Amino acid sequence: MTRRVSIFGATGSIGQNTIDLIDRDPDGFEVVALTGGGNIAQLAADARRLNAQVAVTAHEDRLPELRDALAGSGVEAAAGEGALIEAAERPADWIMSAIVGAAGLPPGLAALKHGTTLALANKESLVTAGPLLMRTAAKHGATILPVDSEHSGVFQALVGENIADVERILITASGGAFRDWPLDKLADATPEQAATHPNWVMGQRITIDSATMFNKALELIETKEFFDVLPSQIEVLVHPESLIHALVGFRDGALMAHLGPPDMRHAIGYALHWPARGDVPVERLDLARIAQLTFRPPSEARWPALRLAREVMETGGLAGAAFNAAKEKALDAFIEKRIRFTAMAEIVDTVLTRLSSDPGLSSAQIDLDNVRQMDQLARVRAAEAIRENT
Ligand code: NDP
Ligand code: MG
């Protein structure tokens, strides 16, 4: 049976891995929408090859270029946030949410309102608006499947289990580019150094977020929101080999680990074939050759982002939206070499402290409007903190 699929963020690392799986089974899928940002050539080439209904770029000023690149193909061209929403509303059986950053939230929400199955790589959606996302999915009978490797691992370990029997969830972290650097060298780390990952090949932003552990900080919040567990039940474990992605501890003492190669096509493939399992062309682990897996606790001095995530989970409400927005601004400033590596966490800390007097921060009822307002406010506060820091 042919399934209708759409891929948001198709030109990115997750998007391209998703397309790789779809390309291997051309008769299995009918592509509805592909979306991208600035990489028009890739978007148009994939939309043509996969015979998509529509290709959407987030950048309105790039529409003429996209139209030219799609001329004569029969694929519609569209641009801008409204077009992204419209594409998310087109009937599809499975939608990949793999835009990077807070921009992934509106199309994801629009898709859920149509009762679709949403494969969620865009962790920022859960961090900024977890209760809204889960509430919307429940109201419209939609399904959210985690694509982040740790969360896919937890999800797989929970098949046939009762969440009430879960004592703890452990998500692993490789430690990123600077796991073993002397602490006093971190301030001088460059974006190029931070954008190299020991095990995974990912987009630039998430790779730098792995070095600061802002990625793991987002994932702590993502775990709380998706699995509805207490912050005290979630732990981070440094595991340099990146082969165990997550572990679930049960009330009888059992610890179920999810192992897999560091290749996102496993988690994407699991979500694509769910609830069945399908063939996925990833490397098979040879544990006898690997011989050894190692673990250590995360150092809060090296990775202050983890402490900040715990504060955000304590505050609740819109703190996740503020945290993510401040992090995105600080990351931009680091990539532009305006601030040091270690300043990213300082700036996010400053923004959260300054916003803590805002009664709106712990606002219980989250909707798209107040998430957007908090996102904007945190970006303004972050810009101030960045100016003070430079
Ligand atoms: P990339 O940076 O590789 O790709 C991001 C995608 O989003 C691209 O298609 C990009 O378009 C598009 N995009 C960028 N900005 C906007 C915007 N403002 N509006 C709409 N689209 C935009 O990111 P990744 O694939 O690495 O990550 C995607 C998401 O998946 C992130 O949330 C990340 O945290 C998550 N994730 C990624 C993993 C990985 O292995 N890469 C692992 C687990 C989670 P273009 O490139 O054309 O400009
Ligand atoms: Mg992850």
Please write out the topology.
Blueprint: E1 3-8, H1 13-23, E2 29-36, H2 40-49, E3 54-57, H3 63-70, E4 76-79, H4 81-89, E5 94-97, H5 105-112, E6 117-120, H6 123-139, E7 143-146, H7 149-157, E8 166-173, H8 191-194, H9 204-212, H10 214-227, E9 234-238, E10 244-250, E11 255-259, H11 265-273, H12 287-290, H13 305-315, H14 319-335, H15 343-355, H16 368-389
How would you summarize this macromolecular structure in one to three sentences?
The protein has helices spanning 13-23, 40-49, 63-70, 81-89, 105-112, 123-139, 149-157, 191-194, 204-212, 214-227, 265-273, 287-290, 305-315, 319-335, 343-355, 368-389, and strands spanning 3-8, 29-36, 54-57, 76-79, 94-97, 117-120, 143-146, 166-173, 234-238, 244-250, 255-259. It is an alpha/beta fold and 390 residues long.
